[in-house]
Design brief:
Layout: H1 13-25, H2 32-39, H3 48-51, H4 54-60, E1 66-72, H5 87-116, E2 119-123, E3 128-134, H6 136-143, E4 148-152, E5 163-164, H7 176-180, H8 183-190, E6 198-202, E7 232-233, H9 248-257, E8 272-276, H10 283-294, E9 312-315, H11 326-337, E10 341-345, E11 366-371, E12 395-398, E13 402-406, E14 410-415, H12 417-434, H13 442-452, H14 478-483, E15 490-499, E16 510-514, E17 519-522, E18 528-534, E19 536-543, E20 550-556, E21 561-563, E22 566-568, E23 573-582, E24 592-596, E25 603-605, E26 612-618, E27 621-629, E28 637-643, E29 648-649, E30 652-654, E31 667-671, E32 674-676, E33 688-691, E34 718-721, H15 722-725, E35 731-736, E36 749-757, E37 763-769, E38 777-782, E39 786-795, E40 806-814, E41 819-828, E42 831-835, E43 839-847, E44 858-861, E45 868-870, E46 884-889, E47 893-900, E48 907-913, E49 918-920, E50 923-925, E51 930-933, E52 936-942, E53 947-956, E54 962-976, E55 982-984, H16 985-990, E56 998-999, E57 1029-1030, E58 1042-1046, E59 1049-1053, E60 1065-1069, E61 1074-1078, E62 1089-1093, E63 1096-1100, E64 1103-1104, ...
Parallel strand pairs: 6-8, 6-9, 7-8, 9-10, 10-11, 11-12, 15-21, 15-22, 23-29, 23-30, 43-49, 43-50, 52-90, 91-98, 91-99
Antiparallel strand pairs: 1-3, 1-4, 2-3, 5-14, 13-14, 15-18, 16-17, 16-19, 19-20, 23-26, 24-25, 24-27, 27-28, 31-42, 32-41, 33-35, 34-41, 35-40, 36-39, 36-41, 37-38, 37-40, 43-46, 44-45, 44-47, 47-48, 51-53, 53-88, 54-55, 54-87, 54-89, 56-80, 57-85, 58-59, 59-60, 60-61, 62-63, 63-66, 64-65, 66-67, ...
Amino acid sequence: MFRRPHRRRTARSLVSAAAAMVLVAAGLATGTGAQAAQAGTAAGATSPSDKIRPDLAKQLEGKTEGDFWIRFKDRADLSRARDIKDWTERGTAVAEALKKTAAESQAKIRTELDTAGAKYQTFWATNAIRVSGGSLTMAQNFAAHDEVEGLYAPVAYEVPETTKGTDEKTVNALEWGIANINADDVWSQYGVKGEGITIANIDTGVQFDHPALVNSYRGNNGDGTFDHNYNWFNAAGTCATPCDGDGHGTHTMGTMVGSDGANQIGVAPEVRWIAANGCCPSDAALVTSGQWMLEPTDVNGQNPDASKRPNIINNSWGTRLPSNDPFMEDVTLAWKESGIFGVFSNGNSGPGCQTSGSPGSLVSNYSSGAYDVNNNIASFSARGAGQNGETKPNISAPGVNVRSSLPGNGYGAISGTSMAAPHLAGTVALLWSAAPALVGEVDATRALLDNTAIDSADAQCGGTTDDNNVFGEGRLDALALLNAAPIGDTGTLAGTVTDAATGAPIADATVTVTGPAERQLTTGADGKYSSLLPVGDYQVVVAAFGYQSQTVPATVTQNATTTVNVALSAVPSVTVSGSVTDGSGHGWPLYAKVTVQGPSGVSDYTTPGNGRYSFTLPAGATYTLKVESQYPGYQTVTKEVVVGTGNVTANIAVPVQTNACTTAPGYTFGSDGVYETFDGTAVPAGWSVVDHAGTGQVWKFTDDGNRGNLTGGTGNFAIIDSDEYGSGGRQDSSLVSPVVDLTDVAAPVIRFNQDFNHLGPDRADVDLSVDGGATWTNVLRQAADVRGPRVTEVPIPQAAGQAQVQVRFHYYDASFEWWWEVDNVLIGSEVVCRPTNGGLVLGHVRDANDNGYVNGATVTSNDRPAEKATTVATPDDTELADGFYWLFSSLTGTHKFTAAAGNYVSQSKNVDVQADWATATNFRLAAGRLSVKPAQVSATLQMPTGKVNKAFTVTNTGGAPVEVEFSEREGAFELLRADGSRLTEQQVIGSNGAPEQRLNVPTSFAARASGMSSNATSPALGPQAEPWTDIADYPANVMDNRVVNLDGKVYSIAGGNGSASTTKNFVYDPIAQSWAPIADLPEARNAMTVGVVGGKIIATGGWAAAGPSGTTWSYDPGANTWTKVADNPAARSAAGQAVVDGKLYAIGGCTTSACTPMSNSVVRYDPAGDSWETLPNYPKSVAFASCGGIDGVVYCTGGNDGSASQKASYAFDPGANAWTAIPDAPADNWASSFAVANGKLLVVGGSQGGAITNAGFAYDPATNAWSNLPNANTARYRGGAACGFYKIGGSSGSFTATPDSEVLPGFEECAEAAADVSWMTINKTSATLAPGEQVTVTVGMTANVDQPGTYTASVAIKENTPYTVSPVAVTMNVNPPKTWGKLMGTVTGTSCQGVSSPLPGAVVQIDSWAMSWTFATDAEGKYAYWMDRRNNPMTMIVAKDNWKPQTRQTRINTSTPTVEDFALSPIRC
């Protein structure tokens, strides 16, 4: 087991020193000792010291014990095995050769180990021995043996850390992964689903009777019984029959083989499967499992049989990082020679390179990476290269949100390469089923997989499109694989199985085909079957429960369908019925499932109130009924029933499980002496703890050292933990039982579960007294490891017939040792389950409004509140309604019980609880219920002032009052473009925008240029691309301006031209499409902190002539005036800015004209008190960060600390008054244009990764994730932006200010709260409605948006009812303003040969009397834009490189489109 590193203890310093001396002498340490050792070694040989691997040497250094592996040099010659064609002979030959080599190599060391009394385990699949608790001296002795290749430390393998996923949409009831790899196409086109192939997994185990797995388990005898011999290897020692306490193994097996009605989760649902739970208690468990797979044994580990080995083994486990551990490599190489195809997951340590986990990273193993439903590689998918530079993974398969089986008969989605590997394993099964000649041909199969994978380019970790270290050879394609396989001549056998009397199709009939190939098929609901088969003659046996079987011949011919229809005759039937009751004392009726074992599928659930069941079976046969109680703690029993020609009654009494007395309702543990489970946290009644040493270090009943129950018991336990008490402590303590009367017990024992982890001189004794503790006799002394799970039994015949018996567990001579755990102590001869007084209460909870059934309600005994139950759905029992509950009541007679459920009114009833019986009581719960009419409202309005009110009514139709809250919820938009097309929100967000630009030009933090002219040349116009759209240029070249949106208009405040700050400010009207001046600032500033608070614009800080200033002004747009307010205590420029809860935040910033050093100060302005407040510092000292306020929280990203650009991001919660980290931005960034819109922090441009760019991204607090925005048309830094999403000005490098302005349409929701909708209002936010009452809500819509189109939102209705109330959909259709018209046309070019064709990317410049716009033609040479007629007249200039520009005058007409087509000529011919 795992042992955590022991803390160094002073008492053992001499041991550590001595060990270090031995290490030097052995040559493990550096210096002369090592050199001396080398001198005596023959040339070319490995010295003994070098054989002890560094990890092991480090592990043994300073410790008295340790586990290690001994690997031997000799290797079995398996090269001829692949030439053996017989499957059994090949496997046997491999196993025999491996065993012979291991026996000969290991003989000497095994003798030495036996002589030393050492604990060890031998292996033959890898020629190795694993020693437990070996010493350094022992390791050095073994290293001196010539036959030893090396000594290794154990390797920690683990179940990969998968993540819980979400269900992806299925395709025709298939899981997405199966459809993605085209497995379903293989089923339909080739008619194979894995028949004739056995698949296995080494994992955490498998729930063998899961509905999706049980039919394909090789141990399923088909008659309701199971044979686990050769089919299950209990490597972990946790369960004798296949089980899974983790869920990982059940999930991976489901992806390979699972099928259960609509749950089509498996790639190859007709294979047979076996399993081993070797993952991952230890590396030994994994190696043992791998060895068992070569030659499976019976459940006792005897009678190995290589014929029963699987064809394919899935391994979804490994190390976190690459490892060259040789032991599993030896095993997997043996698999290959035996004809077994091993599949491995590549690990979940991505997205970094060199992260492939072992053993998937090894050259010898074939591993899978993972991708998602969009065929994108998963971020967690580990990348290569692998061992010796091998490309890893080898291939990739679906591994994100993979839905499969889970223990408890459930299903769930998980993500990981663990989920990808079983897709690959199942695909190999399909291949080998369709192409038997490939079975065992591992190299040929790998080649086919490599050559048919779908190429997926990704060179981030090296490689090519065809073969790289991200996808490997590419994405798995099962259909392409089979299309390329050597399948041979085939035909199809098909038909329908029907009832001979009625002609009705028979579902689930078994069609067994024998001949050149073997298949076992099952008919569908339509009675049909079909399979692709090699040509030849076959025998077809058709059988169905309740019918007489038939055998018919069939001949399959090439490329043809042979139809064999079979009509089966039904046999006479009778009714078998009875009752199921408790058989251990209470006798009450049991709710149970009664199943007829065998292929019939016949079952019935008993009626909970009386235990009755009934079903119809064919007459004249003997059946075995299996009874499974639906109440916990009962045994599963079987009963044989002989059916003649008449009806049969079979009553069945079911006893409780003697090891689960407290689980079964109404029972408790008892014995003929004393039985104690230590489930409390204090000394049990009658027991005592004695401190013989007087140190206070005694037995406890709390697991302070977090060991877990290692005894094999469950729940709490008794422990004395010497290690937890620490160095310098001393323990001598007894756990003493009460006095036990064994007068009537003839053969008493002391039986208990334990885990004694021995280290040094500590002892664990069990003592007996027969005189009430006056004298004690030792009956068990333990001075070595007795590791759990372990049941120890000590006969105490001397206590038989005695009345004063006591037992004590005595731990002593201990000081900083390990521990002793004890659980489930019996002093007597047997443990029994004793009934306690009480009865069952059961029934249903229903809804008083619609008479439906309520799941999740709680039914509680008022007088015993701990006795309660929760109602559940009963999907498997079609005769029992949902809302079912049952509970055990320890009180009989009349008592009150209460049913309660969320948002229902509780109901209480007096129930007369009958002892030893099931008392039925049903409840009906009242609740409020809302009716909303109409369910949607809509209107058509004209920009910008169109208004309308619409209303909906909410009525309480239920039986209880309802508290209702109404709130706005934003929806989406669909913009109407001038050419009549529409642009949706998803098209905007999903667009790439313009080509990415990266300007590698000088940048600066400083306030202004030194000696530079403000008339620096702007860069040439960049590529124009939707969805970013040019708006009127800013009236001046500007940078370091701050931009805000107030009442739908865009204000640009201050800034500069690169050499001087300005007092000038302008406002942009999206309707007039023009800029206008507003009042000047009282003083020139640039890089201020600006925000809209209370309808006014607050502007603070920024660079003044002498450096950063703290002066603050408030702008009133109604009065068009600036007013000075309280000075900012932190004079900063280029600070991050945000508004939250009506207050302006300034974050970090520059402290000098040169900017450096940057600040981490945070201040907040409250206009209500005209005051500033200092807040906790930002986690980094930065300037030019991008910030914004969303839903009461400040979010910031990026900035520059003076030496490096940042991508770290943080959130400030005013309530907690603290900053916390959020995910890093996709790229480091500073001096970007930023704003808050649509509930997201939007960031575009700035300096990213050392270059000025046009790239953008957005942070969404709702998902705590970043996503990309479309690239802008211009690459700028130190510009401004506002909600809208308007990007104004900025520099193209250094201090080259520009007037360029553009907008990303659709981002117009500017309220701080993400839920607020700018164009919609509601007149009520809450109401209380008594039953029958109603309220009318008025929805106001105003067309105060920037673009025509369709805008959607909703009114959310929050209420305290148990029902779902859909939001009221709100739709506003917006027409353009009366002053807008369409300007559109086509730009063509006429070549020198007179051929005319469209000119994409031509620049269309429009100049009015006051403004200028720049657009570009699309791929068809077209342009179309909304323009305001108030800008008439307009001059149009159309140009494109190598073509002569054209100029003309035009005017906008609001009634008809203005069409201006241009035909350009070449500059030269």
